[in-house]
Please model this.
Amino acid sequence: MCLIQKDLQAGKTMYKLMEQLYPICRSITGNGTRKTLKIISEYIPLMIHEVATGTNVFDWTIPKEWNIKDAYVKAPNGKKIIEFKNSSLHVLNYSVPVHKIIPLNELKKHLFTLPKQPDVIPYKTSYYAKNWGFCINHNQFLKLENGNYEILIDSELKKGGLTYGEYYIKGKFEEEVLLSCYVCHPSLCNDSLSGVVLAVELAKYLSCLKQKLNYSFRFLFIPETIGAITWLAHNQQKIKKIKHGLVMTCVGDSGSLTYKKSKQGNSEIDQTVISVLKDSKESFNLIDFFPLGSDERQYCSVGFDLPVGSLMRTMYGKFPEYHTSADDLNFVKEEFLGDTFSKYLKVILKLEENYGKFTSKNNNKIIRKNKKLGKNDHVFLNLYPKCEPQLGRRGIYHKIAGQNQDLVKEEAIMWILSFSDGINSIQDIEKISKIDINVLMEASILLCEKNLIKEVTN
Ligand code: ZN
Model:
Protein backbone atom coordinates (compact mmCIF):
# COMPACT_ATOMS: atom_id res chain seq x y z
CA MET A 1 0.00 0.00 0.00
CA CYS A 2 1.53 3.26 -1.10
CA LEU A 3 -0.64 6.30 -0.53
CA ILE A 4 -0.32 9.59 -2.32
CA GLN A 5 -0.87 12.86 -0.44
CA LYS A 6 -4.49 13.26 -1.60
CA ASP A 7 -5.51 9.82 -0.28
CA LEU A 8 -3.63 10.30 2.99
CA GLN A 9 -5.39 13.60 3.48
CA ALA A 10 -8.74 11.95 2.68
CA GLY A 11 -7.99 9.26 5.29
CA LYS A 12 -7.27 11.93 7.91
CA THR A 13 -10.46 13.86 7.14
CA MET A 14 -12.55 10.69 7.20
CA TYR A 15 -11.09 9.63 10.54
CA LYS A 16 -11.83 13.05 12.05
CA LEU A 17 -15.48 12.82 11.03
CA MET A 18 -15.62 9.32 12.47
CA GLU A 19 -14.38 10.63 15.82
CA GLN A 20 -17.22 13.12 15.77
CA LEU A 21 -19.89 10.52 14.93
CA TYR A 22 -18.62 7.63 17.07
CA PRO A 23 -20.17 8.53 20.46
CA ILE A 24 -23.71 9.04 19.09
CA CYS A 25 -26.27 6.34 19.92
CA ARG A 26 -27.88 5.60 16.59
CA SER A 27 -30.62 3.20 15.65
CA ILE A 28 -32.89 2.53 12.67
CA THR A 29 -34.98 5.54 13.74
CA GLY A 30 -34.66 8.41 16.18
CA ASN A 31 -32.62 11.42 17.15
CA GLY A 32 -29.21 9.73 17.00
CA THR A 33 -29.66 9.16 13.28
CA ARG A 34 -31.01 12.71 12.81
CA LYS A 35 -28.02 14.17 14.63
CA THR A 36 -25.67 12.06 12.48
CA LEU A 37 -27.32 13.28 9.26
CA LYS A 38 -27.22 16.86 10.50
CA ILE A 39 -23.48 16.61 11.07
CA ILE A 40 -23.01 15.06 7.60
CA SER A 41 -25.00 17.90 6.06
CA GLU A 42 -22.37 20.34 7.32
CA TYR A 43 -20.07 18.75 4.72
CA ILE A 44 -22.42 17.93 1.84
CA PRO A 45 -25.87 19.37 1.00
CA LEU A 46 -27.86 16.37 2.13
CA MET A 47 -31.59 16.05 1.44
CA ILE A 48 -33.09 14.68 4.64
CA HIS A 49 -36.29 12.62 4.33
CA GLU A 50 -38.69 11.56 7.07
CA VAL A 51 -41.04 8.64 6.50
CA ALA A 52 -43.82 8.40 9.10
CA THR A 53 -44.32 5.50 11.49
CA GLY A 54 -46.95 3.15 10.10
CA THR A 55 -46.11 3.78 6.43
CA ASN A 56 -46.10 0.55 4.44
CA VAL A 57 -42.98 -0.12 2.40
CA PHE A 58 -43.42 -3.31 0.39
CA ASP A 59 -43.98 -6.04 2.97
CA TRP A 60 -42.72 -3.91 5.88
CA THR A 61 -44.12 -1.13 8.04
CA ILE A 62 -42.08 1.78 9.39
CA PRO A 63 -41.85 1.03 13.13
CA LYS A 64 -42.33 3.39 16.04
CA GLU A 65 -39.45 5.74 16.57
CA TRP A 66 -37.00 4.89 19.35
CA ASN A 67 -35.16 7.38 21.51
CA ILE A 68 -33.16 6.95 24.68
CA LYS A 69 -32.02 9.43 27.32
CA ASP A 70 -30.31 7.29 29.92
CA ALA A 71 -29.90 3.77 31.23
CA TYR A 72 -28.10 2.11 34.10
CA VAL A 73 -27.95 -0.88 36.43
CA LYS A 74 -27.31 -0.28 40.15
CA ALA A 75 -25.76 -3.11 42.15
CA PRO A 76 -27.19 -4.17 45.55
CA ASN A 77 -24.66 -1.82 47.20
CA GLY A 78 -26.17 1.13 45.31
CA LYS A 79 -23.23 1.60 42.92
CA LYS A 80 -23.95 2.06 39.22
CA ILE A 81 -22.19 -0.84 37.49
CA ILE A 82 -23.52 -0.48 33.93
CA GLU A 83 -23.97 3.00 32.47
CA PHE A 84 -25.34 3.88 29.07
CA LYS A 85 -23.41 7.13 29.13
CA ASN A 86 -20.14 5.14 29.09
CA SER A 87 -21.08 3.20 25.94
CA SER A 88 -24.14 3.27 23.72
CA LEU A 89 -23.61 -0.47 23.18
CA HIS A 90 -24.58 -1.20 26.81
CA VAL A 91 -28.29 -1.07 25.97
CA LEU A 92 -30.04 -3.62 23.77
CA ASN A 93 -30.88 -1.30 20.86
CA TYR A 94 -34.66 -0.59 20.75
CA SER A 95 -35.16 -1.59 24.41
CA VAL A 96 -38.59 -0.68 25.75
CA PRO A 97 -38.58 1.59 28.83
CA VAL A 98 -38.23 -0.08 32.20
CA HIS A 99 -37.54 0.99 35.78
CA LYS A 100 -37.69 -1.59 38.55
CA ILE A 101 -35.80 -3.53 41.19
CA ILE A 102 -35.21 -7.18 40.37
CA PRO A 103 -33.13 -10.06 41.73
CA LEU A 104 -29.97 -11.17 39.93
CA ASN A 105 -31.51 -14.29 38.36
CA GLU A 106 -34.21 -12.11 36.77
CA LEU A 107 -31.65 -9.55 35.56
CA LYS A 108 -29.52 -12.30 34.00
CA LYS A 109 -32.34 -13.09 31.54
CA HIS A 110 -31.80 -9.60 30.10
CA LEU A 111 -28.01 -9.53 30.00
CA PHE A 112 -26.12 -10.25 26.79
CA THR A 113 -22.45 -11.23 26.78
CA LEU A 114 -19.92 -13.01 24.59
CA PRO A 115 -18.38 -15.80 26.71
CA LYS A 116 -15.79 -16.50 24.00
CA GLN A 117 -14.65 -12.85 23.95
CA PRO A 118 -14.97 -12.05 27.66
CA ASP A 119 -13.46 -8.53 27.46
CA VAL A 120 -15.83 -6.91 24.98
CA ILE A 121 -19.39 -5.61 25.00
CA PRO A 122 -21.57 -7.18 22.27
CA TYR A 123 -23.83 -5.09 20.01
CA LYS A 124 -27.39 -6.44 20.07
CA THR A 125 -30.69 -5.18 18.72
CA SER A 126 -34.34 -6.08 19.07
CA TYR A 127 -36.12 -3.83 16.57
CA TYR A 128 -39.26 -5.81 15.96
CA ALA A 129 -39.67 -7.95 19.10
CA LYS A 130 -40.47 -5.98 22.27
CA ASN A 131 -37.70 -6.56 24.79
CA TRP A 132 -35.24 -4.78 27.01
CA GLY A 133 -31.70 -5.65 27.96
CA PHE A 134 -28.14 -4.69 28.72
CA CYS A 135 -24.97 -5.80 26.96
CA ILE A 136 -21.84 -6.19 29.08
CA ASN A 137 -18.51 -7.96 28.95
CA HIS A 138 -18.56 -11.51 30.18
CA ASN A 139 -15.91 -10.94 32.87
CA GLN A 140 -18.18 -8.41 34.53
CA PHE A 141 -21.13 -10.80 34.20
CA LEU A 142 -19.22 -13.51 36.09
CA LYS A 143 -18.55 -11.16 39.01
CA LEU A 144 -22.18 -10.12 39.60
CA GLU A 145 -23.24 -10.82 43.17
CA ASN A 146 -26.61 -12.05 44.41
CA GLY A 147 -29.05 -9.43 45.56
CA ASN A 148 -31.46 -6.89 44.16
CA TYR A 149 -30.54 -4.62 41.27
CA GLU A 150 -32.15 -1.37 40.26
CA ILE A 151 -32.50 -1.14 36.52
CA LEU A 152 -33.47 1.87 34.47
CA ILE A 153 -33.90 2.28 30.75
CA ASP A 154 -35.23 5.74 30.07
CA SER A 155 -36.24 5.13 26.47
CA GLU A 156 -39.33 5.99 24.47
CA LEU A 157 -41.11 4.29 21.58
CA LYS A 158 -43.58 6.61 19.91
CA LYS A 159 -45.07 7.56 16.58
CA GLY A 160 -42.44 9.45 14.65
CA GLY A 161 -40.53 8.53 11.57
CA LEU A 162 -37.63 6.90 9.85
CA THR A 163 -34.99 9.40 8.77
CA TYR A 164 -32.59 9.02 5.90
CA GLY A 165 -30.27 11.24 3.89
CA GLU A 166 -29.73 11.45 0.17
CA TYR A 167 -27.26 13.40 -1.94
CA TYR A 168 -27.60 13.47 -5.70
CA ILE A 169 -24.91 14.79 -8.04
CA LYS A 170 -26.23 15.39 -11.52
CA GLY A 171 -23.83 14.34 -14.25
CA LYS A 172 -24.23 14.85 -18.00
CA PHE A 173 -26.48 11.82 -18.25
CA GLU A 174 -29.33 10.35 -16.25
CA GLU A 175 -27.76 6.95 -15.75
CA GLU A 176 -26.78 6.60 -12.12
CA VAL A 177 -24.16 5.12 -9.87
CA LEU A 178 -25.67 4.26 -6.48
CA LEU A 179 -23.40 4.52 -3.44
CA SER A 180 -25.14 3.27 -0.33
CA CYS A 181 -24.09 3.22 3.31
CA TYR A 182 -25.96 2.73 6.58
CA VAL A 183 -26.29 5.10 9.51
CA CYS A 184 -28.09 2.92 12.06
CA HIS A 185 -25.25 1.41 14.09
CA PRO A 186 -24.37 3.05 17.42
CA SER A 187 -20.73 3.31 18.50
CA LEU A 188 -19.11 0.98 15.97
CA CYS A 189 -16.40 2.13 13.61
CA ASN A 190 -15.48 -0.32 10.89
CA ASP A 191 -18.96 -1.78 10.48
CA SER A 192 -21.19 1.12 9.40
CA LEU A 193 -19.31 4.34 10.27
CA SER A 194 -16.31 3.71 8.01
CA GLY A 195 -18.73 3.41 5.07
CA VAL A 196 -20.46 6.64 6.12
CA VAL A 197 -17.27 8.70 6.26
CA LEU A 198 -16.10 7.20 2.95
CA ALA A 199 -19.40 8.18 1.34
CA VAL A 200 -19.03 11.76 2.63
CA GLU A 201 -15.47 12.04 1.33
CA LEU A 202 -16.35 10.63 -2.09
CA ALA A 203 -19.39 12.89 -2.32
CA LYS A 204 -17.25 15.94 -1.53
CA TYR A 205 -14.69 14.91 -4.13
CA LEU A 206 -17.20 14.13 -6.89
CA SER A 207 -19.17 17.32 -6.33
CA CYS A 208 -16.01 19.24 -7.31
CA LEU A 209 -15.86 17.27 -10.58
CA LYS A 210 -19.54 17.85 -11.28
CA GLN A 211 -19.13 19.51 -14.69
CA LYS A 212 -17.06 16.65 -16.00
CA LEU A 213 -19.06 13.65 -14.81
CA ASN A 214 -20.94 11.46 -17.28
CA TYR A 215 -22.91 9.50 -14.71
CA SER A 216 -25.11 11.00 -12.07
CA PHE A 217 -24.24 9.84 -8.56
CA ARG A 218 -26.69 9.06 -5.78
CA PHE A 219 -25.44 8.71 -2.21
CA LEU A 220 -27.78 7.10 0.31
CA PHE A 221 -27.32 7.39 4.08
CA ILE A 222 -30.00 5.01 5.32
CA PRO A 223 -30.73 2.68 8.20
CA GLU A 224 -29.74 -0.82 7.13
CA THR A 225 -32.46 -3.13 5.72
CA ILE A 226 -35.58 -1.07 6.53
CA GLY A 227 -33.94 2.04 5.03
CA ALA A 228 -32.99 0.31 1.77
CA ILE A 229 -36.48 -1.18 1.56
CA THR A 230 -38.01 2.26 2.20
CA TRP A 231 -35.88 3.97 -0.44
CA LEU A 232 -36.61 1.29 -3.06
CA ALA A 233 -40.34 1.37 -2.29
CA HIS A 234 -40.53 5.15 -2.63
CA ASN A 235 -38.30 5.53 -5.67
CA GLN A 236 -39.40 2.81 -8.03
CA GLN A 237 -39.40 5.17 -11.03
CA LYS A 238 -35.70 5.92 -10.44
CA ILE A 239 -34.54 2.35 -10.15
CA LYS A 240 -34.16 1.70 -13.88
CA LYS A 241 -31.61 4.53 -14.03
CA ILE A 242 -29.24 2.72 -11.64
CA LYS A 243 -26.50 1.21 -13.78
CA HIS A 244 -23.96 0.39 -11.09
CA GLY A 245 -23.87 0.36 -7.32
CA LEU A 246 -21.75 -0.36 -4.29
CA VAL A 247 -22.62 -0.84 -0.63
CA MET A 248 -19.97 0.76 1.54
CA THR A 249 -19.06 -0.73 4.90
CA CYS A 250 -16.07 -2.24 6.72
CA VAL A 251 -13.57 -0.08 4.84
CA GLY A 252 -11.20 1.08 7.59
CA ASP A 253 -9.47 -2.01 9.03
CA SER A 254 -5.98 -3.32 8.18
CA GLY A 255 -7.20 -6.31 6.13
CA SER A 256 -6.80 -6.57 2.38
CA LEU A 257 -9.68 -5.53 0.15
CA THR A 258 -12.64 -7.84 -0.36
CA TYR A 259 -15.14 -7.59 -3.17
CA LYS A 260 -18.51 -9.25 -2.85
CA LYS A 261 -19.91 -9.46 -6.35
CA SER A 262 -23.41 -8.41 -7.34
CA LYS A 263 -25.87 -11.22 -7.92
CA GLN A 264 -25.44 -10.77 -11.67
CA GLY A 265 -21.80 -11.67 -11.03
CA ASN A 266 -20.37 -10.33 -14.26
CA SER A 267 -21.85 -6.88 -14.63
CA GLU A 268 -19.77 -3.83 -15.48
CA ILE A 269 -19.36 -2.85 -11.81
CA ASP A 270 -18.12 -6.37 -11.01
CA GLN A 271 -15.61 -6.29 -13.85
CA THR A 272 -14.51 -2.76 -13.04
CA VAL A 273 -13.86 -3.39 -9.34
CA ILE A 274 -12.01 -6.61 -10.11
CA SER A 275 -9.78 -4.91 -12.67
CA VAL A 276 -8.93 -2.07 -10.23
CA LEU A 277 -8.03 -4.64 -7.56
CA LYS A 278 -5.90 -6.62 -10.02
CA ASP A 279 -4.13 -3.47 -11.20
CA SER A 280 -3.21 -2.60 -7.61
CA LYS A 281 -0.95 -5.68 -7.51
CA GLU A 282 -2.00 -6.12 -3.88
CA SER A 283 -3.68 -9.25 -2.58
CA PHE A 284 -7.49 -9.18 -2.46
CA ASN A 285 -10.44 -11.48 -1.86
CA LEU A 286 -13.26 -12.13 -4.25
CA ILE A 287 -16.58 -13.46 -3.00
CA ASP A 288 -19.63 -14.52 -4.98
CA PHE A 289 -22.92 -12.93 -4.03
CA PHE A 290 -24.72 -14.53 -1.13
CA PRO A 291 -28.08 -13.34 0.22
CA LEU A 292 -26.90 -12.39 3.72
CA GLY A 293 -24.93 -9.34 4.73
CA SER A 294 -25.94 -5.77 4.12
CA ASP A 295 -28.24 -3.81 1.79
CA GLU A 296 -27.00 -5.57 -1.35
CA ARG A 297 -29.60 -8.15 -0.26
CA GLN A 298 -32.38 -5.70 -1.08
CA TYR A 299 -30.80 -4.15 -4.21
CA CYS A 300 -30.13 -7.63 -5.63
CA SER A 301 -33.50 -9.14 -4.61
CA VAL A 302 -35.33 -11.05 -7.36
CA GLY A 303 -37.62 -8.13 -8.21
CA PHE A 304 -34.74 -5.65 -8.79
CA ASP A 305 -31.57 -7.67 -9.41
CA LEU A 306 -29.53 -4.47 -9.65
CA PRO A 307 -25.80 -4.63 -10.38
CA VAL A 308 -24.81 -3.69 -6.83
CA GLY A 309 -21.77 -5.24 -5.17
CA SER A 310 -19.88 -4.37 -2.02
CA LEU A 311 -16.24 -3.34 -1.81
CA MET A 312 -14.90 -3.78 1.71
CA ARG A 313 -11.68 -4.54 3.50
CA THR A 314 -12.33 -7.41 5.95
CA MET A 315 -15.92 -8.49 5.42
CA TYR A 316 -18.56 -8.15 8.16
CA GLY A 317 -18.64 -11.21 10.39
CA LYS A 318 -15.06 -12.12 9.49
CA PHE A 319 -13.19 -10.03 12.05
CA PRO A 320 -13.48 -10.82 15.78
CA GLU A 321 -14.15 -7.14 16.62
CA TYR A 322 -17.31 -7.22 14.46
CA HIS A 323 -20.45 -6.16 16.37
CA THR A 324 -18.51 -5.60 19.59
CA SER A 325 -17.08 -2.67 21.50
CA ALA A 326 -13.64 -3.63 20.07
CA ASP A 327 -14.76 -2.22 16.70
CA ASP A 328 -13.72 1.19 17.99
CA LEU A 329 -11.57 4.15 16.98
CA ASN A 330 -8.38 2.12 17.51
CA PHE A 331 -9.47 -0.62 15.15
CA VAL A 332 -9.84 1.72 12.18
CA LYS A 333 -6.86 3.67 10.85
CA GLU A 334 -6.51 6.75 8.66
CA GLU A 335 -4.19 4.99 6.23
CA PHE A 336 -6.64 2.17 5.52
CA LEU A 337 -9.54 4.59 5.09
CA GLY A 338 -7.34 6.56 2.70
CA ASP A 339 -6.39 3.44 0.77
CA THR A 340 -10.03 2.36 0.38
CA PHE A 341 -10.91 5.90 -0.74
CA SER A 342 -8.28 5.67 -3.48
CA LYS A 343 -9.65 2.31 -4.69
CA TYR A 344 -13.23 3.60 -4.80
CA LEU A 345 -12.10 6.62 -6.71
CA LYS A 346 -10.29 4.44 -9.25
CA VAL A 347 -13.44 2.36 -9.71
CA ILE A 348 -15.52 5.49 -10.25
CA LEU A 349 -13.07 7.06 -12.67
CA LYS A 350 -12.89 3.82 -14.64
CA LEU A 351 -16.68 3.66 -14.88
CA GLU A 352 -16.62 7.26 -16.07
CA GLU A 353 -13.95 6.53 -18.65
CA ASN A 354 -15.88 3.55 -20.00
CA TYR A 355 -19.23 5.32 -20.06
CA GLY A 356 -21.25 4.08 -23.03
CA LYS A 357 -18.61 1.56 -24.12
CA PHE A 358 -19.62 -1.51 -22.16
CA THR A 359 -21.84 -4.05 -23.89
CA SER A 360 -23.68 -5.91 -21.21
CA LYS A 361 -24.25 -9.58 -21.23
CA ASN A 362 -26.11 -10.86 -18.24
CA ASN A 363 -24.03 -13.71 -17.08
CA ASN A 364 -25.90 -14.90 -14.04
CA LYS A 365 -24.16 -18.17 -13.70
CA ILE A 366 -27.00 -20.30 -12.48
CA ILE A 367 -29.53 -19.13 -14.99
CA ARG A 368 -30.92 -22.24 -16.69
CA LYS A 369 -33.20 -20.92 -19.39
CA ASN A 370 -32.29 -23.54 -21.95
CA LYS A 371 -31.55 -26.35 -19.62
CA LYS A 372 -34.06 -29.11 -19.09
CA LEU A 373 -35.26 -29.77 -15.58
CA GLY A 374 -34.74 -33.19 -14.09
CA LYS A 375 -37.73 -35.20 -12.90
CA ASN A 376 -37.04 -34.45 -9.25
CA ASP A 377 -36.14 -30.80 -9.65
CA HIS A 378 -38.27 -28.24 -7.87
CA VAL A 379 -38.58 -24.68 -9.05
CA PHE A 380 -40.17 -21.97 -6.92
CA LEU A 381 -41.26 -18.41 -7.55
CA ASN A 382 -40.81 -15.74 -4.88
CA LEU A 383 -44.21 -14.07 -4.39
CA TYR A 384 -42.58 -11.07 -2.63
CA PRO A 385 -39.80 -10.40 -5.14
CA LYS A 386 -39.12 -6.76 -4.26
CA CYS A 387 -36.79 -6.76 -1.23
CA GLU A 388 -37.08 -9.34 1.51
CA PRO A 389 -40.46 -10.10 3.05
CA GLN A 390 -40.57 -9.42 6.78
CA LEU A 391 -39.90 -12.84 8.22
CA GLY A 392 -39.96 -11.76 11.87
CA ARG A 393 -43.69 -11.16 12.06
CA ARG A 394 -44.32 -14.52 10.41
CA GLY A 395 -42.35 -16.17 13.23
CA ILE A 396 -39.62 -17.48 10.93
CA TYR A 397 -36.72 -15.28 11.90
CA HIS A 398 -34.65 -15.19 15.04
CA LYS A 399 -35.47 -12.54 17.59
CA ILE A 400 -32.03 -11.97 19.09
CA ALA A 401 -30.00 -15.12 18.65
CA GLY A 402 -30.85 -18.55 17.38
CA GLN A 403 -29.63 -22.09 17.68
CA ASN A 404 -27.13 -23.29 15.08
CA GLN A 405 -29.62 -25.50 13.31
CA ASP A 406 -32.03 -22.59 13.07
CA LEU A 407 -29.30 -20.41 11.58
CA VAL A 408 -28.68 -22.90 8.77
CA LYS A 409 -32.40 -22.96 8.08
CA GLU A 410 -32.53 -19.16 8.14
CA GLU A 411 -29.72 -19.08 5.62
CA ALA A 412 -31.59 -21.60 3.48
CA ILE A 413 -34.66 -19.34 3.63
CA MET A 414 -32.64 -16.36 2.43
CA TRP A 415 -31.10 -18.31 -0.45
CA ILE A 416 -34.48 -19.59 -1.62
CA LEU A 417 -36.10 -16.15 -1.46
CA SER A 418 -33.17 -14.51 -3.24
CA PHE A 419 -32.82 -17.03 -6.06
CA SER A 420 -36.38 -18.33 -6.63
CA ASP A 421 -37.16 -16.47 -9.82
CA GLY A 422 -39.22 -19.23 -11.39
CA ILE A 423 -36.18 -20.44 -13.33
CA ASN A 424 -33.55 -21.58 -10.83
CA SER A 425 -34.32 -24.93 -9.23
CA ILE A 426 -33.63 -25.99 -5.66
CA GLN A 427 -30.84 -28.16 -7.07
CA ASP A 428 -29.25 -25.07 -8.64
CA ILE A 429 -29.52 -23.26 -5.32
CA GLU A 430 -27.94 -26.24 -3.58
CA LYS A 431 -24.93 -25.99 -5.90
CA ILE A 432 -24.17 -22.35 -5.20
CA SER A 433 -25.26 -22.17 -1.55
CA LYS A 434 -23.62 -25.47 -0.54
CA ILE A 435 -26.55 -25.99 1.81
CA ASP A 436 -27.85 -29.53 2.19
CA ILE A 437 -30.75 -30.19 -0.19
CA ASN A 438 -32.91 -31.53 2.66
CA VAL A 439 -32.53 -28.29 4.60
CA LEU A 440 -33.37 -26.32 1.45
CA MET A 441 -36.45 -28.46 0.85
CA GLU A 442 -37.53 -28.08 4.47
CA ALA A 443 -37.13 -24.31 4.18
CA SER A 444 -39.03 -24.19 0.88
CA ILE A 445 -41.94 -26.15 2.36
CA LEU A 446 -42.10 -23.63 5.22
CA LEU A 447 -42.00 -20.71 2.75
CA CYS A 448 -44.79 -22.31 0.69
CA GLU A 449 -46.91 -22.74 3.83
CA LYS A 450 -46.39 -19.06 4.63
CA ASN A 451 -47.38 -18.15 1.03
CA LEU A 452 -44.06 -16.46 0.37
CA ILE A 453 -43.15 -18.70 -2.58
CA LYS A 454 -45.03 -21.08 -4.84
CA GLU A 455 -43.88 -24.05 -6.86
CA VAL A 456 -43.95 -23.61 -10.61
CA THR A 457 -44.04 -26.38 -13.16
CA ASN A 458 -42.05 -25.88 -16.33
ZN1 ZN B 1 -23.61 -4.49 11.43
Q: What stands out?
A: Residues 189-209 form the longest helix (21 residues).
